[in-house]
Description:
Blueprint: H1 3-15, E1 23-29, H2 30-40, H3 47-58, H4 65-81, H5 86-98, E2 100-102, H6 103-113, H7 118-136, E3 143-146, E4 159-165, H8 176-182, E5 195-201, H9 207-219, E6 223-225, H10 234-243, E7 248-253, H11 254-260, E8 262-267, E9 272-277, H12 281-288, E10 301-302
Parallel strand pairs: 1-3, 5-6, 5-7
Antiparallel strand pairs: 1-4, 2-3, 7-8, 8-9, 9-10
Helix pairs in contact: 2-7, 3-4, 6-7
Amino acid sequence: MTEGEVIKVAMDIVGKFFDWDACEIHVNHAHILDAIWSWTGVKQEAKHDVAKLLSWICSSSPQTSNRKSKWALIRRQLLQGLHLPESTVDRLQTVERRFSGTADEVLARLRGALPPDRFTLAALEELSTLLSYLRVWEIETRVFIDALMSPTEEYHKGMFFQISSSPGAVGLSVALEKIMHLTSAESCRSETGTSVLVCSRGGGGLLKERMEVVADLWAANIKAEFVCTLAPSLTEQYEYAHEHGIKWLAIITEAGLSHTGSIKVRHIELKWETEVPKEELVKFFTEATSTPFRKRSSLSRIWS
């Protein structure tokens, strides 16, 4: 499962209990954090205590007065409680001021400031890719890069995130690892409607296009999923559908979108297929669940 879909699952869970507009996603990457520790001069033996202390400010919105007001106490604790050199504390404060904020702005600053080693560059590219995917789901405005935020578990070696509430709202901690064993992305949405697997054939996997179609179906309260790898084969996607009991496939091809603007729809059980214009896909699946399907349109054809 991609980080983008995990975040979407978390959003759905949070949205059942809180006003999503009052929540934020704070994102960081383990390799970026390592580069920050190195640049600021935080020693290995002090990292745990420093991270624990900094977590107090990382729960607040970056660049807000509430967060800035906490820094004076944090600074005093870093100097007097943990006995860090003043130069290290000054650099940590520089990171807090420059590398915590809106994702687009901070990404540009990190690219110019961090050493261009392959791990750091790869981490920055992963964050940039994640942000581009979240734009598809129109949630990038609620995403902040928080370069001083540490993972809650040591096994996080890539990207990690936390969902926090804005000042004045109730806080919430979501144990996604446990939730993912109990539910899937579709179960976080409405229990009504049909279940669709949005697939791709060729075109390098068409991940962004699959995400766009899934988002359209989600918005219409239609349960939909996609195989969360960059370029799954059609065989892999069929196997996923069979394993999860999904009968409907919406198959995207580069040629179909560019030439006719259509998506191929298949029903695995009935061996039925047709071409549906992308803009009519939601209407098609909405109607498919409200009328007996076996007697539908003469435009249908059998495939084998």
